[in-house]
Specification:
By secondary structure, the chain is mainly alpha-helical. It has a two-stranded antiparallel ribbon. Helix 8 crosses helix 14, helix 9 runs antiparallel to helix 10 and helix 11 crosses helix 12. It is globular, with a radius of gyration of 19 Å.
């Protein structure tokens, strides 16, 4: 959720010069306006019709969104004790061995250490085995975009989600995510999916739900683009720690990434 604010600038670019749809009011009229905007941004009518026809607001999504306050109100010690334990460390080390060749290629291309990538992977979705969300992303984002609290942000995210389908990265039936529309094993917002997604397995699609290669390379691409430098420290106060702010603004969360990476290295 704390990555949402960082998506706002890119969302403006995605939306282009289109007039924002009016939030609130009749939901069907709002969705129709969004469909027109998406088509103006290059999304086909067949995609917008399939994605938006019959979509209805999700009250549970709105209720969850209104509860999201003080996500990181624990101290670092309290938080890390709930997220990084022996089981997760051992699981991460096993995956470092299993994917050693892949991680070497990613390090060479993007300059982000494997331990940071695997730490993020573990924290976000327990290495793809945990909860990555079960909600239809289009319905979720249409609901949040219609709500007037952050309508510009979520209108942009909705357009980005439609572009994921338009590009052929994920079929509509696989566009499943969490309560703010986050998708995949490292929980990318749709705008980040479009901006940073990498087809690293060479199948012609950026698949952040099923392809480990795409997941890890895209995560590395986000950090690399944000200025992360290989071989440099990443503790609090460093340039790399600041680069990880694009991943998550919370200091506690970034410290936990670093702590987990160190444990994976055996420190």
């Amino acid at each position: 959720m704390l990555r949402l604010l960082l998506a706002a600038a890119f969302v403006v670019c995605l939306a282009g010069s289109a007039q924002a749809a009016r939030c609130g009011g009749d939901f069907n009229s709002f969705v129709a306006t969004m469909a027109s905007e998406a088509q103006g941004a290059g999304v086909s009518a067949s995609v917008t019709n399939a994605a938006l026809s019959g979509v209805t607001p999700d009250g549970a999504v709105l209720a969850f969104d209104r509860r999201q306050r003080h996500t990181f109100n624990k101290s670092f010690e309290q938080y890390v004790s709930t997220r990084v334990g022996p089981g997760r460390i051992n699981g991460g080390r096993a995956l470092l061995q299993r994917h050693a060749a892949l991680l070497s290629r990613i390090e060479q291309q993007f300059g982000v250490p494997r331990y940071i990538l695997v730490a993020i992977w573990g924290l976000e979705s327990d290495f793809g085995k945990g909860d990555t969300g079960k909600l239809p992303v289009i319905k979720t984002l249409a609901t949040l975009a219609h709500d007037c609290r952050r309508t510009d942000l979520f209108q942009g995210e909705l357009l980005a989600a439609l572009k994921i389908v338009q590009r052929g990265d994920l079929p509509l039936r696989d566009l499943i995510g969490a309560y703010a529309g986050e998708i995949g094993q490292t929980q990318f917002l749709p705008s980040s999916y479009i901006k940073y997604g990498v087809d690293f397995d060479g199948d012609g699609h950026v698949d952040l739900r099923h392809s480990v290669a795409d997941v890890l390379a895209s995560t590395a691409n986000l950090l690399h683009t944000s200025g992360f430098k290989m071989g440099q420290p990443y503790g609090e106060g460093t340039a790399n720690f600041e680069a990880m702010r694009e991943w998550n603004r919370a200091v506690v969360y970034r410290k936990t990434i670093g702590y987990f990476a160190d444990r994976l290295m055996g420190q």
